[in-house]
Specification:
mainly alpha, 3 strands, single chain
Length: 248
């Protein structure tokens, strides 16, 4: 969390202490980034809009006003730093200023809740302002399923003579066959795959708990061919890697 462009105040120390706590728990980089981004935005609102410099001064009404503020401002109208405006150009996005979804606001309030729960447990605050804030339960829309024809068209779009397209083709087939997340797929190591039982040990999962997934006979043949191809043309150690270095 960069503080080069601002004076250190109490809430900055509280946020740093919280991030150190999260890091010590060995949370995923994605989770840490989510906490940091959410809390920087919240910190800036407290300081710039309300003049609050210490989390112990935050009241339940401030949280409710913040939720209202997010709904009124819309997407990408608030940034953690002015520097990002000249890098990401959020005002050029098609969905700029469009309403923030309940799912996003639910994620924000969840992260803020974890922060204040931590402060309460550390006795940094006497009262937790999130205790009277109801959890937002967004309505989840069912995603439209791909038809067999759609899947066939999607897989047929890859040029298997190109290394990276072949890699993505195999990765997509494995995701469809096993239900793996894309991030989990990228972290697989050769030793995680057992071709005898046609199983994969997934080590780096979203919740941190290892699990097994299983694949079919055809996928087994595809995986074996891919591993031979990968060993011939690439120096990567995982089964998949987004920035693979290909040998000439």
């Amino acid at each position: 969390m960069s503080k080069k462009d601002r004076t250190i105040i109490e809430i900055d120390l509280q946020l740093d202490n919280f991030m150190l706590y999260c890091d010590a728990k060995n949370l995923s980089k994605k989770t840490l980034k989510s906490y940091e981004q959410t809390l920087i935005l919240f910190r800036n609102y407290l300081v710039q809009e309300l003049g609050i410099h210490d989390a112990s001064e935050v009241k339940t009404s401030h949280i409710r006003h913040y939720i209202k503020y997010l709904r009124e401002r819309g997407k990408y109208t608030v940034t953690g730093s002015d520097k990002t405006l000249n890098i990401n150009y959020p005002n050029r996005r098609e969905d700029y200023k469009k309403p923030i979804s309940d799912t996003t606001i639910a994620n924000y309030t969840r992260n803020i809740r974890v922060f204040f729960n931590f402060l309460k447990s550390e006795r940094e605050i006497d009262n937790n302002p999130m205790e009277k804030i109801d959890k937002i339960k967004p309505k989840r829309k069912k995603k439209e399923l791909l038809s067999p024809e759609d899947i066939k068209l999607m897989l047929g779009a890859y040029d298997l003579s190109k290394f990276h397209e072949y890699r993505t083709f195999i990765q997509l087939k494995l995701i469809l066959d096993t239900g793996l997340r894309a991030s989990e797929c990228c972290e697989l190591m050769p030793e995680d795959i057992d071709f005898k039982t046609k199983s994969i040990l997934v080590r780096k999962t979203k919740n941190g708990h290892e699990r097994y997934v299983y694949f079919g006979y055809k996928m087994s043949m595809d995986l074996k061919r891919w591993i031979k191809h990968r060993d011939k043309y690439s120096e990567i150690v995982t089964i998949y890697f987004q920035q693979a270095k290909v040998r000439n």
